[in-house]
């Protein structure tokens, strides 16, 4: 009976080995089970061979992706079927899979024989699949990157096994560190070649070809885990060899976070210190709004400063963050009270804000003898009952440097969030608990270099919304015809101000509006200081130094605001970025800032320009508005296509909605659409490249379904195509009567909503008009075209019962 259950097709004539299935089911059942278990167990006879010999075979590079457990016949892994040791009395080894013996042998197996055994029963191997896919698509960087990540997972596990290291899968720190871990033992040359050799070869080839800029930063775009590559002599040598190449690229792309993460791990191999390297990079203009240095980089600098007792340096970097730290503490450890709804010993917040920021800053202040700052920190935390433990720690820290904090006298009354109190005997003149910025006084108003503030005192209250300036959508240039439900007139007025601030040259500045009532203290202070008339509509501009430039006493126009802004003498962002780019001609970041500025200016000027009956601006206006942008975009395009995910943030300056109004932009799109397509063929999962293609394609007679057929995505990897192209893709499928393709695309999306409704969740707010028009209706139509009426009716019934959007009557 047993022999009848054996699938003869699985018997392979490999010398010295016998492959067969047990009596547990058919081949199809066996292969179905194989999908859920990719390991198997390789047993060995410890009286005839040793574990190290078996490990060497299993660790061979050709078996990467298949990772059987290894055990001797006497010591079987828990929760596995009992095997018959007597049956294998003559065998050196046996391979079992899901309780069935697949292969055994009386001599040591070769790696090639084990590979054939795995393949014979259909056990999937992602590494081998990716290798085959890459051989057919050698320029596809997404496939290459996916393969490298699989090889790294394998190498990490094998390194831990080889060196008997304890697995540490927890994130070491959210920011990582440039301080290398202690490495007491490295892999020997043979183990290193087997475990890391293939990955090292791919790294080396990527650097040699120049593809690394587009691909390798994505390899390091992950949580900060233990840097296991440092246990590999091959990888460590590669990191050292190519660190200079990465640093040169960072000089051009200095705000590329993933490139910084790449540098951080590679720098550990060379003990390269961020405090030594960072000063070599130019500081980004404050007007860019870019956090500089990047948050990760600043944390690395602080770690190194703390490790080397550079206390003054640490204070210099951390003290500006103190108001932000206080605001964070206010949320879970407020002044004067213990929150009733929070655990005063909240470990997450305590570790992050109190132990991670507050006490290290206090330590730095004390050790650098910045006692004024140290006293302020102590006064703050001692005012928070939830931080009683940290207050005691602060006292002990002060004792260590022979400092005594002034005694804080508890307040006679409970403090509100808007009050500030000092303490008796305060040696710091005017010392107060710093609060987050408030609009209660000019002194407390949040300002930043490069920003201007449009101040409006006592804005009008028209009886009808229509009396306001027409609110225009800045993306489309169209007037808003429908007032948002429940919108207040004051809210609409503020939105209209934002539109005004993006016109007539103002788009080259960052101007934030503040609207105050006459009786607000901050308004009264400004009126008195500037001797302005009371009880009169007033507007003007305030700079970051709180200097006021008067505008007038009637509603401002964009032209009037622009004239006052120019009177401040502050440079426009465009001129600042142009100077920065001229000073650093090799900086992609500098050119990117300038391109974004050109894009914003040209976009809003196009919205305001006169257009012909076809929607085009005049040729002269087109040339005047878009020439600078197109010239720079042409120069920068290769750099953008190489690393679009870093430079096209927070907006994509190659995705201009006003391309429909500019013949020059459309010519640009037609000229470079093929370059974008080549980039997408190399990186089909890159959202930013898709944004460019979608912007260019309508003016280049491109078909989305046809183009997608030229692309090879990574199997089971999300992002292909990105969801924002679905509506256009569905529209083209409808024009081709490709109803099955619509179902394949949209059905999984609808199922997520159906499951929520079936679970009796309230999701009516998710069932929007866009969802109905762009997804649900085409899906129902596709079902109906294919005769699947029941499915379409069920969707419509679900939509109605779940109170989805319906056409207003």
Which characteristics define this entry?
5-stranded mixed sheet, 809 residues, mainly alpha, 4-stranded mixed sheet
Describe this structure in words.
By secondary structure, the protein is mainly alpha-helical. It has helices at residues 27-34, 51-58, 111-120, 126-136, 141-163, 189-209, 212-219, 233-252, 257-270, 274-277, 295-307, 311-318, 322-332, 347-367, 371-382, 388-399, 489-500, 521-530, 558-567, 573-583, 588-608, 619-642, 644-647, 663-682, 687-696, 704-708, 726-735, 739-758, 769-785, 789-801; strands spanning 17-19, 41-44, 69-72, 93-97, 100-105, 451-457, 510-516, 538-542, 548-552. Strands 1-5-4-2-3 form a five-stranded mixed β-sheet, covered by helices on one side. Strands 7-6-8-9 form a four-stranded mixed β-sheet, sandwiched between helices. α21 runs antiparallel to α22 (619-642).
List the SSEs and their pairings:
Elements: E1 17-19, H1 27-34, E2 41-44, H2 51-58, E3 69-72, E4 93-97, E5 100-105, H3 111-120, H4 126-136, H5 141-163, H6 189-209, H7 212-219, H8 233-252, H9 257-270, H10 274-277, H11 295-307, H12 311-318, H13 322-332, H14 347-367, H15 371-382, H16 388-399, E6 451-457, H17 489-500, E7 510-516, H18 521-530, E8 538-542, E9 548-552, H19 558-567, H20 573-583, H21 588-608, H22 619-642, H23 644-647, H24 663-682, H25 687-696, H26 704-708, H27 726-735, H28 739-758, H29 769-785, H30 789-801
Parallel strand pairs: 2-3, 6-7
Antiparallel strand pairs: 1-5, 2-4, 4-5, 6-8, 8-9
